[in-house]
Amino acid sequence: MPAYKYLLWPILVTIAGLAGCFWLGLSYTGTIVGALSYLFIGGVLSVLEISLSFDNAIVNANKLQCMTEVWRRRFLTWGILIAVFGMRIIFPLAIVAVAAQISPWAAVELAIAEPTEY
């Protein structure tokens, strides 16, 4: 299978995410310069996330070699869910909820409605 078939969806999702950054910057600032600054920040964060993911993938690949098939499957399903959703979505909301002494739902509303306050 050609490599571009593996990369099609990741590239499309990346383009959609960067377009979302541009749109968010345009809607918040109302200027092209503001939209470009949001796009730049989104690009930098994308590069950082991808580079750290590659680094982590090397460590995970070494650990997976020592695991049985059952534990590999568990690691890849539950580990990915915990890493992606738990540490990138749930954990930051929990920190804000505890630090601000608000409910978790109020932290979600704060993140959506008032991102600068969040």
Describe this structure in words.
The chain is mostly helical and 118 residues long. The chain has 2 domains: 1-66, no CATH class; 68-113, no CATH class. Helices cover 87% and strands 0% of the residues. The chain has helices at 3-29, 32-65, 69-100, 104-113. Helix 1 (3-29) runs antiparallel to helix 2.
How would the blueprint of this fold be written?
Elements: H1 3-29, H2 32-65, H3 69-100, H4 104-113
Helix pairs in contact: 1-2, 3-4
Short description:
The chain has four helices and no strands. With 118 residues, the protein is an all-alpha fold.
Residue stretches low in confidence (pLDDT < 50, at least 5 long) are: none
Cα Rg: 18 Å
Q: What percent of residues are in strands?
A: under 5%
Largest beta-sheet details: none
Number of strands: 0
Oligomerization = single chain
Helix content: over 70%
Order of helices and strands: HHHH
Number of domains: 2
Helical/strand content category: mainly alpha
Shape: flat
End-to-end CA span: 45 Å
Mean pLDDT: 90
Q: Give the count of helical stretches.
A: 4
